[in-house]
């Protein structure tokens, strides 16, 4: 009877109790008609797969340019700009929660915003390093108190942020057993809560040695989209920040919007930095033509680029039809003009 | 006069905050320390008797006074026992929510709801009350607040008391809520033995719950809504209602240590105290008003509701 009384006072105090859960269940069984009658506002689409009430992951190896992609995405979201194949439908407020970078580095990255249209929605940051420098504890999402604090913050700030970037998982879950499905449970529940609050949550993670995401694959189960970042074939560190972006999971995008693309950071002629996005299919075709015209065999090109030989053969045909290659696979005059100076050392060396 | 006697005298004469309370706390703490009273007990005693005044007295003020007294008399320092955290956040609102769950505020309705019919005169309450609450062989104290417990006089077995009352005897106005061992035990202040303290309790059957600051109607509403194992509700003949709660339906309590864990801390400090219950009632040898006693005001102390089993009235 002690527990009955304790439950009574907790309920009277507005706390949730097991009998409260029962009441919730009893009153929330939905019949077909009731389900149909619920008024659910349409999902707000922001940028490509980044939509209201979704969760996504962006992963890639160290140094591939994950944070550059993040910053470019955030700037596109807050300014209603397309991002390569991702079409922008509505500007979104963004909160970036950064676990590793210093405030000085993030400040330097703001150069990417120079020359862009002004922000329509807010772009805010919570930076672990900044918290630490002020003598505060740093974010640890393994701790339920931190998770509760975030939920409270998101509830209190209402519609200020539509998209939350959590960069990155390792920084916010120190000592976390990445292969442990059970340990992921509370974090998954936290991400779901944010999603149910109407937010799109995108978290960043490192890839493993095989290039896939590190840790339990169950993490991907609940996600709406996953973007994989990888270094392009023949990547030269002198190229700076450049990576291939491939959508390995998408519940909402198909067709051209889901096509892989290459992201790179370029210097602007007028000074400063900007990003450039090219469709991988086009650049891939051109690269194959350049390699073939320079005397690399079809088999070698296939091995070099990790593409099957059939695709190489079809691309050669495309090159012939477009008067870039001869039937023998050599450059035509226009092919030579276009690709003759191509630095094949980068790919063959 | 010994320091311990002066300490006890001080406790009967507290000064209200804003009217010399701080000096009174300092002197009481000093006397308690000199009289070798446990510092935790000094803190509890001071907190218990301080009346309402023009300012709130924080625990820190009392603790600082005890600490200073201990340092002045080279008795170390005082680290107060941490209070268990209440399981509720807003006691007053919670209590009101429970009160709102009841539809009974009337004594007549309560009379109708009593599991044992109370169709006799209030002066005969004792004869009907004791057999329901106690076993015939239970040793019970019935007497006045300041009376020492004397075996065979104010401490007798239940069946003797029933015969005494049946024969027209009067005793009161108080009864200790639990049966006693009949063996002497040391007083809390260490000044000799007693037969009617917490250390003399034999069976931990009941705890007493009383509100100081609720209207009579709201007390009835609370007790008819609370999911507690109530054995009896007793009208004190004043403003209060005393609820006798059956401890065995809440927890296994076989010793004073069990009592301190389950009743004092879990029930009183974590739930009842935040609800506004007088925390001073939380000891097992608590005095309650003996039903059937006629007070000087002309009002009877009487049973309002009675049951063979401790159960919630749950209207």
Key terms:
heterodimer, A: alpha/beta, two-stranded antiparallel ribbon, 39% helix, B: alpha+beta, 2 domains, 4-stranded antiparallel beta sheet
Shape of chain A: elongated
Secondary-structure element series of chain B: HHHHHHHEEHEEEEHEEHEE
Structural classification of chain B:
alpha+beta
Greatest interface (CB-CB under 8 A), with counts per chain: A-B, 14 and 23 residues
Biggest sheet of chain A: strands side by side, in what order?
5-4-6-7-3-8-9-10-11
Helix fraction of chain A, binned, reads: 25-40%
Number of strands of chain A: 11
Rg of chain B, rounded, reads 20 Å
Q: Biggest sheet of chain B, in brief?
A: 4 strands, antiparallel
Mean pLDDT of chain A: 85
Largest sheet of chain A: 9 strands, mixed
Beta-strand proportion of chain B: 5-15%
Beta-strand content bin of chain A? 15-25%
How many helices of chain B in DSSP terms?
10
Task: Enumerate the spans of chain B where pLDDT stays under 50 for 5 or more consecutive residues.
Answer: none
